[in-house]
Amino acid sequence: GAGVSQSPSNKVTEKGKDVELRCDPISGHTALYWYRQRLGQGLEFLIYFQGNSAPDKSGLPSDRFSAERTGESVSTLTIQRTQQEDSAVYLCASSVGGSGRSYNEQFFGPGTRLTVL
Amino acid sequence: GNSVTQMEGPVTLSEEAFLTINCTYTATGYPSLFWYVQYPGEGLQLLLKATKADDKGSNKGFEATYRKETTSFHLEKGSVQVSDSAVYFCALSEVSGGFKTIFGAGTRLFVKA
């Protein structure tokens, strides 16, 4: 596709349930990022994938959060046993990535709005 | 570790007023600096960037200069329009961090007609 896509656009779930959020990056982008944006707040880094390297998971807030990426394509962010404080917009971004680049513009998807009741 | 600090909002201006949104950073190396913008109901998009000291990024009338001596990257526009109302995020990306990008908390701008 032309841009980063995410699904679903909205997800309402009950506390304690598991949810999966999907991200389709721009074709050819080797780097993929997940962020969380709580209402009225900035972006909170969650996890970063670069090619076949081990992902940088330093931003994951708890072991209930995990993410996978298949090669250099789709990524899935999974939240287990959701809590009300998980309610937020989850943003995915991709970039060309790779070594030797002096900057790395990120292209963002529209986000998934998660509401935990 | 790396961090970005930007002025708290909201900032409310009248149309054609001068805009400054302050941003300072902390980094161990030589980061690239960015401003991203999030218009109401839309996703984040890159507004401008600067990759080394003294570079000036510019786009849509906005400018920001990479100041290594003051570790700053303040966003400016000479004459704002109602359509500039949005949330603005300052960010840095460093090679040593694997291009992980650190974002500031965002500054909401309201421009009144």
Question: Characteristics of this structure?
Answer:
heterodimer, A: about 120 residues, mainly beta, six-stranded mixed beta sheet, B: mainly beta, four-stranded antiparallel beta sheet, about 0% helix, about 50% strand
Describe this structure in words.
- The complex is a heterodimer of chains A (117) and B (113).
- With 117 residues, chain A is an all-beta fold.
- Chain A has no helices and 10 strands.
- In chain A, strands 2, 4, 5, 8, 9 and 10 form a 6-stranded mixed β-sheet that branches. In chain A, strands 1-3-7-6 form a 4-stranded antiparallel β-sheet, with no helix packed on it.
- The model of chain A has no long low-confidence stretch (mean pLDDT 90).
- Chain B is built from no helices and 12 strands.
- Chain B has strands spanning 3-6, 11-14, 19-21, 23-26, 32-38, 44-50, 56-59, 62-65, 75-77, 86-93, 101-103, 107-112.
- In chain B, strands 2, 5, 6, 10, 11 and 12 form a 6-stranded mixed β-sheet that branches. In chain B, strands 3-9-8-7 form a 4-stranded antiparallel β-sheet, with no helix packed on it.
- Chain B is globular, with a radius of gyration of 14 Å.
- The model of chain B has no long low-confidence stretch (mean pLDDT 92).
- At the A-B interface, strand 4, strand 5, strand 8 and strand 9 of A face strand 5, strand 6 and strand 11 of B.
- Number of separate helices of chain A: 0
Beta-strand residue percentage of chain A: over 45%
State the helicity of chain A in percent bands: under 10%
State Rg of chain B.
Answer: 14 Å
H/E order of the elements of chain B?
EEEEEEEEEEEE
What gross morphology of chain A would you assign?
globular
* Percentage of residues assigned to helices of chain B: under 10%
Task: Please tally the β strands of chain A and state the result.
Answer: 10
Mean pLDDT across all amino acids of chain A: 90
Tell me the number of strands of chain B.
12
| SS class of chain B | mainly beta
Strand content of chain B: over 45%
The Cα radius of gyration of chain A reads 14 Å
